[in-house]
Structures are given as C-alpha cells and as structure tokens.
Specification:
about 230 residues, mainly alpha, 2 strands, elongated
Length: about 230
C-alpha cells in the first residue's frame, strides 16, 4: 500500500510507492492490454459492467480531471513554503476511502459522472493517454515531496472524502490498482472472446491457455503486493 501507520494517529503516505505504481501500471498495460484485440477490449461481461477499454478510459479521465487540481495544490504549497518532515495525521474518512479503493474489491463505488468512460473508446487515444497521464502524475508526485501533505487541500475534489494532497496522490495509485484488478476480472469471465489478429496498436494474439494462466497468476500477485 502507499500508506502505513507509524504511531497512534500518524500515517505515512509513501510517495515512492506511488512512483513504483506508475511503472507497475505501465508495465501491466504493455503486458496485459496491448496484446488484446479490439473485440476483447470492448467486450462487456454484461450490459451493466464495464469493458476493459472502459475501465482504462475511466482511469485516464479521472487522472485528467485530478492532475490540474493536484498541480495547483502543489504549486500553492511551494509558494507558501508549506513543508513538513513527516509524521502526518490524516482525517479518518480519508484513510477509510483509501482502504475501500484497494483491490480486491468488496463493494461497489459509483463513479462520479464526469469520470464515466466514453461511449466509444478510441484504442489509439487510449494508448497515448494511458502513458501520458501516468508520466504527468509521476511528475506531480515528485514535486510533492517534502510538502505538508495532509494539510494542503485539493480545491473541489472529485471524490469528496479525499481532500488532502497526500491522500489524493495515494488515492490515484490505489484507483489504478482497483481498475486494473477489475480489468483482470473481465478477462477471466466466461465468454471472453478468443484472440484475433488486428492492426493498429493491438497486433498480437493473447498467449496460449497455460501461459495465460501463469501470467494471470503473476498479475494477481503483483496487484496484491502493492497493497
């Protein structure tokens, strides 16, 4: 996880862990998403559940909306010299929101309307935005080091329970893990389409069944190991 208890009431937000998650998310995308066909990306387990493409579009949309708010908070903190050596104390509701965001998912959280995926996700745009959004997020994390993370607040947060800069940065990493986990569940749903060759950013078929099972087990361990 990107936060741990240090003493009663004190919690550390692990910004280094947030940076590790950036690389883990990009690696997962390369290994687990790029080999999929357009049909596989857009396939829904049922009309009420998102496709893999929709999970990823939601992640990108959330980061695109949050990053300007995060950057504004970081800039304000730097201008006002709001630094802290650590030993932070966060509001309990923020910590509970962070825990609830982590996989494995035990209860549904309705996505804010502004973060809902597009009706038709463009695969080329999805690839470009997935990497760009995480590189921008990583830059914001690096600039946040040394700031008073729990007391610098995000203006008009999209997720109202997560208001501080530190918790917002941790929440974005947990949010990636949550929906990567969701995308893996889609892949394992009976009826998921077989691989086909395609053009564009999806040139390779999925691996054979034994190799795919081994890869899925590895991904499951990786998703849980970041908690």
């Amino acid at each position: 996880m990107n936060y741990e208890f240090q003493s009663e009431g004190a919690v550390a937000i692990d910004l280094d862990g947030c940076l590790v998650q950036v690389e883990a998310s990009k690696s997962w995308f390369t290994r687990r998403v790029l080999p999929l066909s357009i049909e596989q990306l857009r396939w829904r387990p049922d009309p009420r559940r998102w496709s893999i493409a929709e999970c990823l579009d939601h992640l990108n949309a959330t980061l695109a909306l949050y990053l300007p708010k995060i950057d504004a908070a970081v800039g304000l903190g730097r201008r006002e010299g709001r630094v802290s050596p650590g030993g932070f104390r966060y509001v309990r509701s923020e910590l509970e929101a962070l825990r609830s965001a982590e996989p494995p998912v035990t209860h549904r959280i309705d996505a804010p309307p502004v973060t809902l995926p597009a009706a038709a996700v463009d695969p080329d745009w999805l690839v470009e935005q997935f990497h760009q959004m995480r590189d921008r997020y990583a830059d914001s994390v690096r600039r946040a080091f040394g700031l008073d993370l729990p007391h610098i607040l995000i203006v008009e947060p999209i997720f109202p329970l997560v208001r501080s800069l530190g918790a917002s940065l941790a929440f974005m990493a947990a949010h990636d893990r949550r929906h990567m986990w969701q995308a893996e569940r889609v892949r394992r749903t009976p009826g998921f389409p077989h691989a086909v060759f395609t053009s564009g950013p999806w040139p390779r078929p999925a691996a054979d069944s034994e190799r795919q099972i081994a890869e899925e087990e590895k991904v499951e361990i990786e998703l849980r190991s970041t908690l």
